[in-house]
């Protein structure tokens, strides 16, 4: 069992509205409910998680830069920035902290403009379409990956 893995969970724009935001698409759980699920999953996995939500691209980028040396992995739902932000992609590829991308909805079943992710090509992988479970599955996959690369 590996020691002291710390994971940064980043939630992008509008995810603070979860619970009231298009519940037919995103479900009825609030962001705090999802963070609780993640903390519970983290405890089961024996890792620690820190969560941050921002509606601002620069804040997300700063927190990605600051992850270097503090976190071993990043779990990110960049929201709409997934489809627009080369800057977030460059931040993630710049620090090279292993990253898993998650989405509540299946972005490939939705509008064409949601089919492209700037993050996916530089991520370990992407989980999309399982609602809040996407986050838990993503956390498990990320921890599994990090443990597999430990010597
Ligand atoms: C989302 C999908 C994005 O297209 C959208 O802009 C979001 C949420 C999801 O979790 O399904 O804000 O990332």
SSE map:
Elements: E1 6-11, H1 23-26, H2 31-45, E2 48-53, H3 57-67, E3 73-77, H4 86-95, E4 99-103, E5 125-128, H5 132-149
Parallel strand pairs: 1-2, 1-3, 3-4, 4-5
Helix pairs in contact: 2-5, 3-4
The protein binds 1,3,4-trihydroxy-5-OXO-cyclohexanecarboxylic acid.
Structure notes:
This protein has 151 residues and is α/β, with parallel strands linked by helices. The chain has a single domain, classed as Rossmann fold (3-Layer(aba) Sandwich). Helices cover 38% and strands 17% of the residues. A five-stranded parallel β-sheet has the order 2-1-3-4-5, with helices on both faces. Strand 3, helix 4 and strand 4 form a beta-alpha-beta unit. The chain is globular, with a radius of gyration of 14 Å. The N and C termini lie close together (12 Å). 1,3,4-trihydroxy-5-OXO-cyclohexanecarboxylic acid (DQA) binds next to loops.
The CATH class is Alpha Beta
For the biggest β-sheet, the strand order reads: 2-1-3-4-5
- Unreliably modeled segments: none
H/E series: EHHEHEHEEH
Mean pLDDT value? 97
CATH 2nd-level architecture = 3-Layer(aba) Sandwich
User: Which small-molecule species are bound to the chains here?
Assistant: 1,3,4-trihydroxy-5-OXO-cyclohexanecarboxylic acid
Number of strands: 5
